[in-house]
Amino acid sequence: MHQSWWPSRFGADDQLGMLNHVDDAKRAEALSLVREGRLYDLGRILDETVPVFPGRYFRQTLVSTAHHDGGNWITEIVTGTQQLGTHLDTLGHLQIGHRGYNGWTVEDLAGGAGLKRLGAETVPQIVTCGHLVDVAPLGIGDAIGPEAIDGRDIRAGDAVLFHTGWGSRWDDADAYLAGQPGPGMALAQRLASLGVALTGCDTWSYGPVPSDPPFEVPQVLNAHHGVFVAENLDLSALAADGVREFALILTHPRLRGATGAWTSPIALV
Fold this sequence. Notes:
Blueprint: H1 24-31, E1 39-41, E2 58-66, E3 72-80, E4 87-89, H2 106-109, E5 126-134, E6 143-144, E7 159-163, H3 173-177, E8 182-183, H4 185-193, E9 198-201, H5 216-225, E10 228-231, H6 236-240, E11 245-250, E12 260-262, E13 266-268
Helix pairs in contact: 4-5
């Protein structure tokens, strides 16, 4: 049983959660980590072949339209779920039972065309200090413990990303979706106690799968603590180069009412 976790420490009307800690000073601190100008793209290419959780999909169709003066343009029509590919979950994505972040019920949150609160349009663009924790290689269902971040100078508003090695299965959808390793509950609670604003992995969800109950780790991070989660990150190059601290820049489309947002975050060092 989960005891009541609302109202948020940031106020009963808050929609930012731990992103409240990402202020001008935090962004300036993050940019001070850039010494060489080297860039790492942490996003995956998005197309119809990406691994998808059951019930989600992505489709793209091209449309060619002729101009009257003999010119032409080509456009595309995209239909899909924001909860696939490299994406950021909003705090409106997950609930525990009937309630989500700040205690809002499903009826409080859900409208016919999208979320009435906590949609992607409420999430600011993110520039913050990033930390990579390389725990690879891990296997299906392995839980990362809190000792993984021992000795790391992680502060409120920072982002903590975990390289498990699971992303090497990306091109084999069946293997990739068969399960995953991820941060366990003890680690999640420690991240929240530090005020971490954003966390993510090179996996299709967050936390070990299988687990009992399923998906409890991201549910607690989102609903209890207002910690944002990014999924399907490509952290392989960052890990291979031994990068441990960087400026994280994560921007996203402000799609009103969306429960998530496609993103291609970058790490700068």
